[in-house]
Amino acid sequence: MSQLEIKNLRIAIGEKEIVKGFSLTIRSGEVHAIMGPNGTGKSTLAKAVAGHPDYTITGGDVLVDGVSILAQEADERARAGIFLAFQYPSEIPGVSIANFLRAALQARLAEGEELDATAYYKRLYSKMDLLKIDRKFTSRSVNDGFSGGEKKRCEILQMAMLEPKFALMDETDLGLDIDALRIVADGVNTMRGPNLGVLMITHYQRLLDYIVPDYVHVMWDGRIVKSGDKSLALELEAKGYDWVKKELVTA
Amino acid sequence: MKPPTELEAAPAPDTATENPVIGIDQSSGNFSYKVDHYAFDAGTGLSEDTVRYISSVKKEAPWILEFRLNALKKFLSMPMPTHWATKDLENIDFSKIRYYLSQGQKPKRTWDEVPDDIKKTFERLGIPEQERKFLAGVEAQFDSEAAYSNIKDIVAKQGVIFVNSTEGLREHPEIFKKFFGKVIPTGDNKFSALNSAVFSGGSFIYVPPGVKVAQPLQAYFRINAENFGQFERTLIIADEGAEVVYMEGCTAPKFSTSTLHSAVVELVALKGAKIQYITVQNWANNVFNLVTKRGVAHEEAEIKWIDCNIGSRLTMKYPGVVLKGRKARGEVISIALANDGQHQDTGAKMIHAADETTSNIVAKSISVGQGRSTYRGIVHIPKHLKGCKNNTECDALLISTNSRTDTYPAITVRGDANSVQHEASVSKVSAEQIFYMQQRGLSEGQAMSLSVNGFINDLARQFPMEYSVELKRLIDLEMEGSVG
Amino acid sequence: MSASALTETTSLVGSFTDEAFAAHLASLGAAPAWWLDRKRAAFEKFASLPMPRRTDEHWRFSSIGALTLDGFALHSSVVSTEFAPAAAAPATASLSLVNNEVATQVAPSAELLSRGVIVTTLADAALKHPELLKAHFMAQPQKLGSEKFAALHTAFVGDGAFIYVPRGVELTAPVVVVHAAAGPDTAVFPHTLVVAEENSKVTVIDYFLSADAGAHFACGANDLYAAHGAQLTYIAAQNWSRDTLSFQFNSTIVRRDARVQSLNLHLGARQARHESMSQLQAPGAFSEMLALTVAEGAQEFDQRTLQVHQAPNTKSDLLYKNALRDKARTIFSGLIIVDPDAQKTDAYQTNRNLMLSDEAEANSLPGLEIQANDVRCSHGATSSRIDPEQEFYLQTRGIAKSAADELLTFGFFEEVLSKLESTTLHDGLHDLIKAKFKK
Question: Are C386 and C409 a contacting pair, CB within 8 Å?
């Protein structure tokens, strides 16, 4: 049982503050969804928690099982159990998926310990089969020349291989057709369980039909302004974000 | 595929008699001057006496004469740069060039005061009524001295100094002496040395801090005497936060023997200032046009050269920006069109000398017939700078079977905190595109013109309206007879 | 003769004096007269040509001050060290040369010999195949600045590799040649000559290495000739000692429908100049020119290339990638020439520099001279550090920054290595690079 605590987090890019006091605690086994209009700071939150160097934390804290990770480099955070499924995954020409995942898994082993190559490939192929990714992809460069859907599936494949404690999924549904969305959602749902906490960032309710969240939060101007269960997502879908805005004004 | 609106926008083809060279009616004969009307004439050939003569006519301070004589020594000692440049330079006969010629009038302020024979020449150049009015507000350089200036009174109200080089050095030495010859040292190259020895004419502009000059300052240069080289010297200083646009355009009558034009243009943009320098060069096809242009951009300042070369026999010109202050920006937009017998050897230099400086070069050239266009560039990012960026794009369009294009960039980058990207491509007009337009009823020549205009369209749009229209007309003319 | 005149003469030839040349000729034994005449003419040319000058465009950005010819010696005694080729691939034949003389030689199979395949020494070829040697040995003009050093090569070349693949013969395994220098201040003149006749297929690998850390002088050349429809792959892995001054000249001739792929891996030497010229002489000819450089310490790699399209419908594609660490310098100067009648040419030229340190310096001079209009030509040059977004992406997967940078650097090389058809070759070169990185 782990928990990821985000406490009153403030994030700036350059001089501009984007996230303005965001608080949320995610425990293993829970799936949280954050919804909100564009430019409200959702992606900034995910990237900053993962440790992107362009974002400055100006206040608050992020803790994994009570230990602050803010002083850690991105790779240390990853090894502490944070996984970011990118909205726009980087293309990395010349680095094959097989080598890449191998390096990532090797980085999680103690010094001097070697990855069991046979077991690795066996596991890799089974996860690929699950996500309906052609096995030939192992020799292709990471995301290089992939379609939008292939990139997103490749993200989920990495998540499945690296078995994080917490997954931050940034607009994973973006650019996916229904078939691809179903494959990705099935993948995530298979991973759901007592050892994984999920934070899904999405603009649309659609994804939540496939990966049903335990909690839904509405983010506005850098913080959570409303929380509820999955029905909140439906209400948002029906009434639009203006509804939240009006509520904010009246409050 | 081109949308039909663009096809409709095609200009009616000009007939040869009406418009053989941009806006000029050549049917009224040859408009060259007779030299015997000139009050001052330094004769042909170059010696210390020539330089002393020029300086004495201009009643210059001793330091300027010394500057000139020193430059002359440098010029004579420097070899022709033919180890990298074209051998055509060897055809310049410096002993036949006339280095100074002046009618001796003081610059005039109003149209009425302009001498009749100069007015007559404007008429003979076929400049439309509207443009004549427009001309009345410009610093028009006739031969070596400014014929008149008017706009200067308007901008003077803002504290802007807009004078010719002689006046600038005489009346405002405290402002211009500090920067004169500093951006482009005398010995920068053989032709900057030549200019430094015999310069006359050109503009000296100073824009005080924070002043944004609303209308572009303009100068028209024309060569009007056989074997008579022009050596303008322009220095523009934009003080902190100031903004100014300068436009220089030239047309020249046709002569039978080669003439030489060798200008030096120096720009200084102090902190936060912006200077834009626009040139449309259309010298006659016997002119050697060997020009040195460079600016220094201080902190957060911006210098942009927009340079279009259509005329001349040989142009060698690589506008440069020294990015001296943090976050300074430099840009060169270059268009070159080389037709039979022409060599456009143009390009850009970007010297990064401070952190977070950015530079951008976009060069497009068109070679027609046996024309040759060459791009030369230097991008230099020295040691220990951070966050510098350069982006360079060179595109060449070859119209005829044996048109020629060359590209010779030189890029130096030190350190891992900067990024540089250079791309160049060569293409021809798509036969499919031409066929498409012909199918819609355009002649091959018209279609070709449209295609070529399309090729440079994104750059042409950066010129002021009247220039971009002029450019389009010039290209139409150049493309005539290039097909079939 | 005055003292200054003497200095002048010495600096023009350095250690390669009249006496040294006479001694070299004397050591050649059975060489035919025409071969000796050619060498004499070359020596005269070498001795008369000036050293490169700063104003010479072909030497722009080069550290010409370090191009000294002094203090080198020709060692005639063969050091009988065995040099195992780095890629332990099965070979059609192999040849190793130490200090200009043959050390080991493995001939092609009897079957291949019977079909006319020749893998022999240059000295042997001079006696038995003079016509082929006359036609192809250093037969092309030097257009990239090193006329003097190319003449020096011809004058002093001792032994080398001669490979001839007859019409229609396809060799499945590569021919492997090792050129080694041993002993202090040794001068070596490696040469590999490959003639691939009509519709033949051959891969040749040249390894260049030093037996010790001596300050060697290497002045090598290779001549590649691909006749109608031939497929020739040429790999050069240069790994001289870090104190070596190296020159390497390539001439590639590509005839109708022939395809030549060359890959130069540059790892060793203190200063290495590489000049490579491909001439596309008939329709359908294709030359793929690849290079990878790992530059570190104070190494300087100076690469000059020329793609000459002399006939219509020809293609050339150049990709040179440099990774720079420490205070290393690289120079890439490339030129595509499209002759007036070479319509329908496809010519590409790309130089990418990966800047891995604050002090490294990359110079790019990508050039075009195009005199035909119906062509597709482009060039590109970039110099930049590792993409921080890619680095971050790898880090978010738990890979430490240093490991991420190494992965990305090899990713950078992979674009070139992946163009090799043979995975054995791919892995062999990859390992060579890795070894340099691990040092």
Answer: yes
Tell me the chain B residues in contact with residue C363 when contact means C-beta distances shorter than 8 Å.
410-413
| Per-residue model confidence (pLDDT) at position C403 | 92
A107-156, pLDDT tens digit by residue? 999 888 999 999 999 999 999 998 889 999 998 999 999 998 899 999 99
Q: Which chains touch B (3 or more CB pairs under 8 A)?
A: C
Separation CA B11–CA B479 (nearest Å):
13
**Residue A82, min C-alpha distance to chain C (Å):** 8
Strands (E), A52-175: 55-64, 67-68, 82-85, 92-96, 141-142, 166-170
Interchain contact, A162 vs C397, CB within 8 Å: yes
Please work out, in degrees rounded to the nearest 5, the angle formed at the alpha carbon of residue C25 by the alpha carbons of C70 and C272.
35
| CA pair distance C362, C360, nearest whole angstrom | 7
Q: Which residues pair with A19 in a beta bridge?
A: A11
- What is the ipTM, given to two decimal places? 0.87
Closest residue by Cα to residue B132 from B144, B124, B143, B123: B123
Structural tokens at position B190: 């053989």
Length of chain C: 439
**Closest CA in chain C for residue A52:** C392
Q: Are B460 and B472 in contact (CB under 8 A)?
A: yes
In the block, residue with structure tokens 């900057």: B192
The b-or-e profile of A156-174 (16+ CB within 10 A means b, else e) is bbbbbbbebbbbbbbbbbe
Is residue C374 less than 8 Å (CB to CB) from chain B? yes
Percent share of chain A, pLDDT over 90? 72
Alpha-carbon gap, residue B39 to B56, rounded angstroms: 14
**pTM reported for the whole predicted model:** 0.86
B179–chain C nearest CA distance, Å? 30
Calculate how close chain A gets to C392, using CA atoms only, in Å: 7
Residue A104: closest CA among C434, C403, C430, C388: C403
For an interface test with B, give the residue of C371, C374, C385, C391 to mutate (most B CBs within 10 A). Answer: C371
Beta-carbon separation of C370 and B426 below 8 A:
yes
Contact C370 B406 (CB under 8 A): yes
- In whole angstroms, give the CA distance from residue B30 to residue C259: 59
Quote the minimal CA–CA distance from B97 to chain C in Å. Answer: 29
Residue of A nearest to C400 (CA): A75
3-state secondary structure (DSSP) of residue B406 = strand
CB atoms within 10 A of CB A120: 16
Report the candidate in C203, C263, C269 with the shortest Cα–Cα distance to residue C239. C269
Q: A interface mutation test: which of C352, C384, C390, C396 has the most A CBs within 10 A?
A: C396
Q: Please judge whether A75 and C410 are an interchain contact, meaning their C-beta atoms are less than 8 angstroms apart.
A: no
User: Of the candidates C340, C370, C385, which has its C-beta nearest B416's C-beta?
Assistant: C385
Q: Is C388 on the interface with A (CB under 8 A)?
A: yes
A86-106: pLDDT as tens digits: 999 999 998 899 989 998 999
Helix count and strand count (H, E) for chain B: 12, 23
For chain A, list the contacting chains (3+ Cβ pairs, <8 Å).
C
Of A101, A84, A2, give the one whose Cα is nearest residue A43: A84
Q: CA–CA separation, A236 vs C86, rounded Å? A: 65
Over 50: is that where the pLDDT of C10 sits?
no
The DSSP code sequence of C178-226 is EEEE-STTBEE--EEEEEE-TT-EEEEEEEEEESSS---EEEEEEEEEE
Retrieve residue B22's tokens: 């941009």
Q: Please, are residues C154 and C59 in contact by the beta-carbon 8 Å criterion?
A: no
For residues A241, A242, A245 and A247, what is the CA-based torsion angle, rounded to 10 degrees?
-100
| CA gap C202, C208 in Å, rounded | 20
List the single residue in A53, A79, A141 with the smallest CB-CB distance to C398. Answer: A79
Taking CA–CA distances from A168, the nearest residue in chain C reads C396
